[in-house]
Amino acid sequence: MSSDPLSVLDWMIGRWAVAGVSDGHEVRGEAVVRRAVEGSVLEARERLERLDGALDYEDLALYLWDPKASGLYAMHISAPGAITRYAVLPLDGRPGVHWMPADLSARVVIAPEGDGWRAEVWLGVDEAPISNLRYSPA
Protein backbone atom coordinates (compact mmCIF):
# COMPACT_ATOMS: atom_id res chain seq x y z
CA MET A 1 0.00 0.00 0.00
CA SER A 2 1.26 3.45 -0.89
CA SER A 3 2.14 5.75 2.00
CA ASP A 4 -0.66 7.91 0.53
CA PRO A 5 -3.69 5.65 0.00
CA LEU A 6 -5.71 8.49 -1.55
CA SER A 7 -3.20 8.76 -4.43
CA VAL A 8 -5.21 6.15 -6.37
CA LEU A 9 -7.83 8.90 -6.83
CA ASP A 10 -5.50 11.75 -7.82
CA TRP A 11 -6.72 11.57 -11.44
CA MET A 12 -10.00 13.09 -10.16
CA ILE A 13 -8.31 16.28 -8.87
CA GLY A 14 -9.21 19.42 -10.80
CA ARG A 15 -12.06 21.63 -11.97
CA TRP A 16 -14.46 19.78 -14.25
CA ALA A 17 -17.31 20.64 -16.59
CA VAL A 18 -20.01 18.01 -16.13
CA ALA A 19 -22.55 16.93 -18.77
CA GLY A 20 -24.90 14.00 -19.06
CA VAL A 21 -28.18 12.55 -17.88
CA SER A 22 -29.41 12.41 -14.29
CA ASP A 23 -32.73 10.72 -13.47
CA GLY A 24 -33.87 11.12 -17.07
CA HIS A 25 -32.98 14.83 -17.30
CA GLU A 26 -30.16 16.30 -19.35
CA VAL A 27 -27.87 18.20 -16.99
CA ARG A 28 -24.82 20.46 -17.06
CA GLY A 29 -22.70 21.62 -14.19
CA GLU A 30 -19.36 21.85 -12.49
CA ALA A 31 -17.34 19.71 -10.12
CA VAL A 32 -14.25 20.64 -8.13
CA VAL A 33 -12.07 17.93 -6.61
CA ARG A 34 -9.17 18.85 -4.35
CA ARG A 35 -7.07 17.67 -1.44
CA ALA A 36 -8.12 19.12 1.92
CA VAL A 37 -7.24 18.79 5.63
CA GLU A 38 -3.50 18.81 5.00
CA GLY A 39 -3.93 16.34 2.12
CA SER A 40 -5.60 13.65 4.22
CA VAL A 41 -9.01 14.04 2.55
CA LEU A 42 -10.09 14.23 -1.08
CA GLU A 43 -13.02 16.65 -1.30
CA ALA A 44 -15.36 16.49 -4.30
CA ARG A 45 -18.09 19.14 -4.71
CA GLU A 46 -20.60 18.97 -7.52
CA ARG A 47 -23.52 21.09 -8.68
CA LEU A 48 -25.74 20.07 -11.60
CA GLU A 49 -28.45 22.11 -13.30
CA ARG A 50 -31.11 21.14 -15.80
CA LEU A 51 -31.02 22.87 -19.16
CA ASP A 52 -33.65 25.38 -17.98
CA GLY A 53 -31.27 26.49 -15.20
CA ALA A 54 -33.11 24.77 -12.34
CA LEU A 55 -30.94 23.04 -9.75
CA ASP A 56 -30.98 19.29 -10.32
CA TYR A 57 -28.47 18.05 -7.78
CA GLU A 58 -25.76 19.25 -5.43
CA ASP A 59 -23.48 17.12 -3.28
CA LEU A 60 -20.24 16.80 -1.39
CA ALA A 61 -18.16 13.63 -1.18
CA LEU A 62 -15.24 13.23 1.20
CA TYR A 63 -12.83 10.39 0.42
CA LEU A 64 -10.88 9.13 3.44
CA TRP A 65 -8.68 6.25 4.53
CA ASP A 66 -9.98 4.04 7.33
CA PRO A 67 -6.92 2.56 9.07
CA LYS A 68 -9.04 0.09 11.10
CA ALA A 69 -10.59 -1.38 7.96
CA SER A 70 -7.46 -0.79 5.82
CA GLY A 71 -9.64 0.67 3.11
CA LEU A 72 -10.90 3.79 1.41
CA TYR A 73 -14.38 5.08 2.02
CA ALA A 74 -16.52 8.03 0.92
CA MET A 75 -18.80 10.09 3.10
CA HIS A 76 -21.47 11.34 0.71
CA ILE A 77 -23.60 14.33 1.71
CA SER A 78 -26.59 15.31 -0.40
CA ALA A 79 -29.75 17.37 0.09
CA PRO A 80 -31.65 17.45 2.32
CA GLY A 81 -28.74 16.56 4.61
CA ALA A 82 -28.53 12.86 3.85
CA ILE A 83 -25.17 11.34 4.81
CA THR A 84 -24.16 7.92 3.51
CA ARG A 85 -20.89 6.03 3.98
CA TYR A 86 -19.65 3.92 1.06
CA ALA A 87 -16.72 1.54 0.81
CA VAL A 88 -14.56 2.65 -2.14
CA LEU A 89 -13.24 -0.38 -3.99
CA PRO A 90 -11.17 -0.80 -7.18
CA LEU A 91 -12.95 -1.83 -10.37
CA ASP A 92 -12.17 -5.32 -11.62
CA GLY A 93 -9.85 -5.33 -14.61
CA ARG A 94 -9.85 -1.58 -15.34
CA PRO A 95 -8.87 1.73 -13.74
CA GLY A 96 -11.37 3.40 -11.48
CA VAL A 97 -13.41 2.72 -8.37
CA HIS A 98 -16.91 1.93 -7.29
CA TRP A 99 -18.76 2.93 -4.17
CA MET A 100 -20.43 0.02 -2.44
CA PRO A 101 -23.10 0.84 0.14
CA ALA A 102 -23.80 -1.37 3.15
CA ASP A 103 -27.34 -1.85 1.81
CA LEU A 104 -28.42 -2.13 -1.84
CA SER A 105 -29.00 1.59 -2.29
CA ALA A 106 -27.19 3.67 -4.91
CA ARG A 107 -23.93 2.25 -6.22
CA VAL A 108 -21.53 4.61 -8.00
CA VAL A 109 -18.95 3.66 -10.64
CA ILE A 110 -16.21 6.23 -11.33
CA ALA A 111 -13.54 5.66 -13.98
CA PRO A 112 -11.00 7.73 -15.92
CA GLU A 113 -11.95 8.30 -19.55
CA GLY A 114 -9.78 10.16 -22.04
CA ASP A 115 -8.79 13.54 -20.57
CA GLY A 116 -11.49 13.32 -17.90
CA TRP A 117 -13.66 10.74 -16.23
CA ARG A 118 -17.15 9.27 -16.10
CA ALA A 119 -19.52 8.55 -13.21
CA GLU A 120 -22.54 6.25 -13.31
CA VAL A 121 -25.12 5.87 -10.55
CA TRP A 122 -26.97 2.57 -10.26
CA LEU A 123 -29.95 1.91 -7.98
CA GLY A 124 -30.39 -1.54 -6.46
CA VAL A 125 -30.33 -4.13 -9.19
CA ASP A 126 -31.35 -1.85 -12.09
CA GLU A 127 -30.14 -2.95 -15.51
CA ALA A 128 -29.01 0.56 -16.50
CA PRO A 129 -27.61 3.53 -14.59
CA ILE A 130 -30.03 6.29 -13.52
CA SER A 131 -27.25 8.83 -13.99
CA ASN A 132 -24.43 8.85 -16.53
CA LEU A 133 -22.15 11.86 -16.29
CA ARG A 134 -18.99 12.86 -18.21
CA TYR A 135 -16.40 15.09 -16.51
CA SER A 136 -14.21 17.14 -18.87
CA PRO A 137 -11.51 19.68 -17.98
CA ALA A 138 -13.15 23.07 -17.29
Brief summary:
This protein is mostly beta strands and 138 residues long. The protein is built from no helices and ten strands.
Write structural notes for this entry.
The mean pLDDT is 92. A hairpin with a 2-residue loop joins β8 and β9. The radius of gyration is 14 Å and the shape is globular. It has a single domain, classed as Lipocalin, CATH 2.40.128.20. It has 138 residues and is mainly β. Helix content is 0%, strand content 62%. It has a 10-stranded antiparallel beta barrel with strand order 1-2-3-4-5-6-7-8-9-10. The termini are far apart.
Supply Rg.
14 Å
- Find the CATH topology: Lipocalin
Give me the strand/helix succession: EEEEEEEEEE
Named CATH architecture: Beta Barrel
Number of domains as seen in the coordinates: 1
The secondary-structure class comes to: mainly beta
Indicate the percent of residues in helices. under 10%
CA(first)-CA(last) distance: 32 Å
> Helix segment count?
0
Count of DSSP strands: 10
Sheet with the most strands, sense and barrel status:
10 strands, antiparallel, barrel
Task: Give the tags.
Lipocalin, mainly beta, 138 residues, 10-stranded antiparallel β-barrel
What secondary-structure arrangement, pairings included, does this model have?
Elements: E1 14-22, E2 25-36, E3 41-50, E4 55-66, E5 71-78, E6 82-90, E7 97-101, E8 107-113, E9 116-122, E10 131-137
Antiparallel strand pairs: 1-2, 1-10, 2-3, 3-4, 4-5, 5-6, 6-7, 7-8, 8-9, 9-10
